Amino acid sequence: MVVTVGVVVAAAGQGKRMRKGFNKQFIQLGDRPILMHTLQAFEHMSFVEQIVVVTSAGDIAKCEALCRSYNVRKVTDVVAGGKTRQDSVRIGLNKVRTDWVLVHDGARPFVSEEMVNELLESAQRHGAAVLGVPVKDTIKKVNVDGIIEETPERQSMWAVQTPQAFRLTELKRAHAQAREEELAATDDAMLMEHLGFDVRIVRGDYYNIKITTPEDLWFAESILQHMRKMGDRTSCE
Ligand SMILES: Nc1ccn([C@@H]2O[C@H](COP(=O)(O)OP(=O)(O)OP(=O)(O)O)[C@@H](O)[C@H]2O)c(=O)n1
Ligand SMILES: C[C@](O)(CO)[C@H](O)COP(=O)(O)O
After folding, report:
1. Whose CA is closest to atom 13 on ligand 2?
2. Could you please report the per-residue DSSP string of 171-211?
3. Which residue in 66, 101, 230, 232 has its CB near the most CB atoms, within 10 A?
4. In this predicted model, what pLDDT tens digit does every residue of 151-182 receive, in sequence order?
5. Considering the domain boundaries, does residue 49 fall inside one?
6. Which parts of the sequence are marked as the site Positions MEP for the nucleophilic attack (predicted)?
7. Could you tell me if the CB of 20 is within 6 A of ligand 1?
8. Angle at Cα 229 formed by Cα 227 and Cα 235, nearest 5°?
9. Which ligand is nearest to the CA of 59?
10. Domain range enclosing 56
11. How many structural domains are present in the chain?
């Protein structure tokens, strides 16, 4: 079956935890801004037909100019996002014209074709899929007084990443319903789970980090150097 695949790249956050005073997507990582690493990764995936970038209204022109200078041609729309990531993704989805959509954080620059292939294969077989990695630490549920309430069994704990892959119509429905019910979610899978969909987890890679706090930039520089040395984006492990 021939299917079409689009991507919504959520890049409209303020990067408060990065404490730079500007959107962290524009921080230079190696020789280009973080967001350009992310967009170029999808640009080079042959099965991706369309990329929609969601950024803040004030950064649209800058983002379009960067796409031109880095030769990112699959970007059809650069649109202004919303207050939350969920709002930004919902806005971006309105521009997507493909059967399947990958939702990805602009701040995850090390997404690879190999991981996206596996993700899409699983999503198309089972209906919806997300990348994730088994957690390495012991996880505690802690109450407002700082007292540990519960230690969930680690074997069943995964740290969820992006991309996350869905049928466009189904994800749009999940977003519409969440809006109606005022349900707030930190990822798109949660909205699909809420609608009763089974969402598969596909093993991603520990290097597929989201750049969130300042020390993540050290890790990101090391990952980038390692990948360039290996001459292959996928051979970090
Ligand atoms: N209103 C928002 C908030 C977040 N994002 C995007 O969602 C991704 C994951 O969010 P996060 O890492 O939390 O980014 P920020 O919201 O920028 O960070 P912070 O919470 O520290 O302000 C980022 O690529 C971010 O740009 C978005 O598109 N729209
Ligand atoms: C979607 C996500 O990347 C999954 O890990 C993440 O939840 C989004 O970022 P945030 O830090 O929760 O805003």
Report:
1. 186
2. HHHHHHHHHHHT---SSHHHHHHHTT---EEEE--TT----
3. 101
4. 999 999 999 999 999 999 999 999 999 999 99
5. yes
6. 154, 210
7. no
8. 40
9. 1
10. 5-229
11. 1
Query: Which residue owns the Cα nearest ligand 2 atom 1?
Result: 187
Atom of ligand 2 nearest to the CA of 17: 11
pLDDT over 60 at 26, yes or no: yes
The pair of three-digit structure tokens given for residue 65, joined into one six-digit string: 């100019």
pTM, two decimals, is 0.96
Q: What does each C-alpha distance from 180 to 8, 25, 88, 145, 183 come to in angstroms?
A: 22, 30, 16, 33, 8
Q: Among the bound ligands, name the one nearest to the CA of residue 12.
A: 1
Residue 105 in contact with ligand 2 by CB distance below 6 A: yes
- In tens, the pLDDT along 39-75 reads 999 999 999 999 999 999 999 999 999 999 999 999 9
Distance CA 98, CA 96 (A): 6
Residue 163 lies in a domain: yes
- For the Cβ of 52 lying below 6 angstroms from any atom of ligand 1, the answer is no
In CATH, what number is assigned to the domain containing residue 223? 3.90.550.10
- Domain membership of residue 235 (yes or no) is no
Is 117 close to ligand 1, i.e. is its CB under 6 Å away? no
Residue 90 is assigned to a structural domain of this protein: yes
Residue 122 near ligand 2, beta carbon < 6 Å: no
Q: Is the ipTM of this complex over 0.95?
A: yes
pLDDT 10s digits, 173-210: 999 999 999 999 999 999 999 999 999 999 999 999 99
